[in-house]
Amino acid sequence: MRSVSVFGATGSIGESTFDxxxxxxxxxxxxxxxxxxxxxxxxxxEMARALQAEIAVTAYEDCLPALRDALAGSGVRAxxxxxxxxxxxxxxxxWIMSGIVGAAALVPGFRALAHGTTLALANKESLVTAGSLLxxxxxxxxxxxxxxxxxxxAIFQSLLSEDMDAVxxxxxxxxxxxxxxxxxxxxxxATVAEASRHPNWAMGQRITIDSxxxxxxxxxxxxxxxxxxxxxxxxxxxxxxxxxxxxxxxFRDGGMIGHLGAPDMRHAIGYALNWPDRAxxxxxxxxxxxxxxxxxxxxxxxxxxxxxxxxxxxxxGGLAGAAFNAAKEVALDGFIxxxxxxxxxxxxxxxxxxxxxxVMALGKAPETLDMILDTDAEARVTASRIxxxxxxx
Length: 393
Ligand code: NAD
Ligand code: MG
Hints:
Layout: E1 2-7, H1 12-23, E2 30-37, H2 41-51, E3 55-58, H3 64-71, E4 77-80, H4 82-90, E5 95-98, H5 106-113, E6 118-121, H6 124-141, E7 144-147, H7 150-158, E8 167-174, H8 184-187, H9 192-195, H10 205-213, H11 215-228, E9 235-239, E10 245-251, E11 256-260, H12 265-274, H13 288-291, H14 305-316, H15 320-336, H16 344-359, H17 369-392
Helix pairs in contact: 1-12, 2-3, 4-5, 5-6, 6-11, 6-15, 11-14, 15-16, 15-17, 16-17
The structure holds nicotinamide-adenine-dinucleotide and magnesium ion.
The site of magnesium ion has 4 residues, from α7.
């Protein structure tokens, strides 16, 4: 029986993963090792009971009593905290979903790779912050990383049985997010509620706001660079409001292979879960005749400064990705908390990178995960300070 674990089971990716596991037979098909979540302990317990998991872990120690109560009599072990999360990743499983949001997924991801698992990687921050180390860890331990971000799953599928040497360019598409049709003048006053409404995809709040600011696409450009080992100049972004073409690969003979599908993450998750096979998946089938037309446009660099920042981060390389992601997470927290405006997020990230490159060699290649975690912590302090300064003006 195949063993699985789901990190971030209670999130948007986690719920879709759970849905697929249950549809594909649940505990009759899979032996579930660990499920993890945050404060939604009732839901976590419900999932753990349904899949008869060995262990359920909440990231928060104060949630442990509630989780224990909810699991009473189930035979599922309840644990809490960052150490328990990392230890849950030490428990061998054949297939592990990395569906925690943010840099918090890093430690469990590395620990999971150490036992040679197949890591289904929804968490793009892992590649942005620690791409070279993560890919090296997978090689060292004979583990496999399968991309789950829809664009990267699309690229992966477009590259099946192709030679990377023949690839000229990779194009990832962007919906344009909640504000794609807003006049730029209105963006400064955009609210959290407005930024949290994605036109096409139902996702967690953080990635939805990152889609409106294009920080999500900025992370994905870096993710493409790190995962597929392709140079930054070969990666392009196209705004594609229909979100039906997820990525295109252009080859040296001028041909392109792309991937189309409904905007439903269960495709990419289901692909990674059943790889190398294709299983029947409960996603909508496209009726292109009724769609009628697919539209594409170049992204406006003034509207989306995050895309320029991603290019600068790749040019610096080394630890810059870790600093970029952490500063972005803090800026996003600042926006969600109402401390800074929507447009100020990019300014905070740019300023944090500038200040950090003044005091350390951001381009230095990371040798250890600790170097990355230290840079992450330093970038959080720097970005928080910048937000405090903005608050005082
Ligand atoms: P979400 O906010 O819906 O869920 C996040 C999950 O992580 C929850 O289970 C939460 O409890 C857990 N979590 C949050 N903070 C944690 C912490 N500090 N420690 C441990 N656990 C923590 O997020 P999501 O939208 O499901 O996204 C998850 C990841 O997948 C992100 O990296 C995102 O960029 C990526 N992704 C998501 C989608 C999508 O459709 N939602 C698409 C592509 C990629
Ligand atoms: Mg994506």
